[in-house]
Every structure is written in structure tokens, then in C-alpha cells.
């Protein structure tokens, strides 16, 4: 299994062109962000450590006994491609949901459909949300359950999912695909790479003081 494969070439952020690894299926439609990360775990200053709380209430009962859930199963330990069904990530717009999944180890999410804000929050982390039809997704979930160690390849640029010599036509939203493939998904890195243009715009704004525009001494700008 490997982490995301990035293309060569200069870009503000790493270019996410392909994700290869093993899968973990989480079945069910309309799985909302409160199920992905319960609200009580969001009282944190940083996102560090959120991964251990992913799907917590689906994984444990009130006495912290394990429930039957894929995230508890040893066969999926180390899996980095989450395979879900329809309308995944609906409900609250909390960015903690993709943060928790990413910190658990998820590099890409494949499903029938995603809530728009959830997909946007995934993009901000460089995590592709890839869609395919219901039949193809359920077949992939079946395959992953039967072959948890088998490799699954997601080609973000070509919009395909490949496993067991099967190639599935997938969809990556045009704006997301462009941002990932060109390495412009990280808005902070993008602004840093265009610092001169940012300063020029700031200078044109009457409410931005000059001392907030000029680069600090010794920053090389």
C-alpha cells in the first residue's frame, strides 16, 4: 500500500494525481458528519488526535465496548481508501469530519454521492471525493470486504477506479480535479505562492494599513 502519488513539477501544493492503497467499506446512505465525528470531540484547539474519534459512537457503546463497525476490524487496519454510499457527509458543515478521517489514515473517499460542503472540506485537505454509480460502488464494497488486502487505484486525472483488473468510470468534480491535479487545492499555499499579487491587492484597499502590507525585514520578498 502507498500514500497518494504526486506528479513532479512546481506547484503551491502537492499534486494529487493518483491514490493507491487498500479499501475500507462503510455502508449506508445519509451518513452525516455527526456520525463521522461526534460534536463532543470538537472542543479542541487543533485537529491533532481527531483520528481516534472517527465514527466513535458507531464503533463503541456507552460503556466503551466495541460495536460491529469496519473501523474496528483488524483486516482494515492501515486502509486508506474509504468506500461509502449515497449522500455521505451530509448534515453539519463541520470541517472536523474530513480532518478526523484524514488523521485516521484516509487519503481518498469513493462513493455514490457526497454533500457539497463535505466534499469542499475534503478538497481543502487534498483528499479526493470520487463518485461512481450505485452498482459499481456496491461491487467495490463487496470486493473490498472479500479482499481487504487487495490494491485499489484511484486515478484522479483520468477519473477511473481500478481493482482486480476491473476499471470503473468515475467522476471527480471538474473544479476539484483541476485543483488536485495542478496542486492548487491548498489556498494558504496558493496565497503564499502569489504573495506579490496579494500585497498589490492589499495596497489598493484603503482600510489596510501600510504596515500590514509591506513584507517584514529579512523575509526575502
Automatic annotation (TrEMBL):
It holds the Pfam family Aconitase_C. SUPFAM superfamilies: LeuD/IlvD-like. Pathway: Amino-acid biosynthesis; L-leucine biosynthesis; L-leucine from 3-methyl-2-oxobutanoate: step 2/4. It catalyses: (2R,3S)-3-isopropylmalate = (2S)-2-isopropylmalate. Its EC number is 4.2.1.33. It comes from the Archaea. CDD domains: IPMI_Swivel. Residues 1-27 are annotated as: Disordered. One of its GO terms (biological process) is L-leucine biosynthetic process. Transmembrane segments: none annotated. GO terms for molecular function: 3-isopropylmalate dehydratase activity. Residues 14-133 form the Aconitase A/isopropylmalate dehydratase small subunit swivel domain. Keywords: Amino-acid biosynthesis, Branched-chain amino acid biosynthesis, Leucine biosynthesis, Lyase. Belongs to the LeuD family. LeuD type 1 subfamily. Belongs to the LeuD family. LeuD type 2 subfamily. Heterodimer of LeuC and LeuD. Catalyzes the isomerization between 2-isopropylmalate and 3-isopropylmalate, via the formation of 2-isopropylmaleate. This is 3-isopropylmalate dehydratase. It comes from Halorubrum laminariae. The lineage of its organism: Archaea, Methanobacteriati, Methanobacteriota, Stenosarchaea group, Halobacteria. The gene is leuD.
Amino acid at each position: 500500500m502507498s500514500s497518494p502519488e504526486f506528479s513532479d513539477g512546481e506547484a503551491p501544493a502537492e499534486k494529487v494525481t493518483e491514490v493507491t492503497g487498500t479499501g475500507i467499506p462503510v455502508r449506508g446512505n445519509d451518513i452525516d458528519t455527526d456520525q463521522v465525528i461526534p460534536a463532543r470531540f470538537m472542543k479542541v484547539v487543533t485537529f491533532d488526535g481527531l483520528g481516534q474519534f472517527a465514527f466513535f459512537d458507531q464503533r463503541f457503546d456507552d460503556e466503551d465496548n466495541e460495536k460491529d463497525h469496519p473501523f474496528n476490524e483488524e483486516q482494515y487496519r492501515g486502509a486508506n481508501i474509504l468506500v461509502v454510499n449515497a449522500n455521505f457527509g451530509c448534515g453539519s458543515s463541520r470541517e472536523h469530519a474530513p480532518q478526523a478521517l484524514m488523521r485516521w489514515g484516509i487519503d481518498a473517499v469513493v462513493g455514490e454521492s457526497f454533500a457539497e460542503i463535505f466534499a469542499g472540506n475534503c478538497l481543502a485537505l487534498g483528499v479526493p471525493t470520487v463518485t461512481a454509480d450505485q452498482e459499481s460502488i456496491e461491487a467495490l464494497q463487496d470486493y473490498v470486504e472479500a479482499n481487504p488486502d487487495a490494491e485499489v487505484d484511484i486515478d484522479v486525472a483520468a477519473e477511473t477506479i481500478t481493482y482486480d483488473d476491473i476499471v470503473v468510470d468515475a467522476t471527480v468534480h471538474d473544479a476539484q480535479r483541476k485543483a488536485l491535479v495542478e496542486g492548487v487545492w491548498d489556498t494558504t499555499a496558493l496565497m503564499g505562492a502569489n504573495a506579490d499579487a496579494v500585497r498589490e491587492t492589499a495596497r489598493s484597499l484603503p482600510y489596510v494599513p501600510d504596515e500590514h502590507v509591506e513584507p517584514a525585514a529579512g523575509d526575502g520578498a
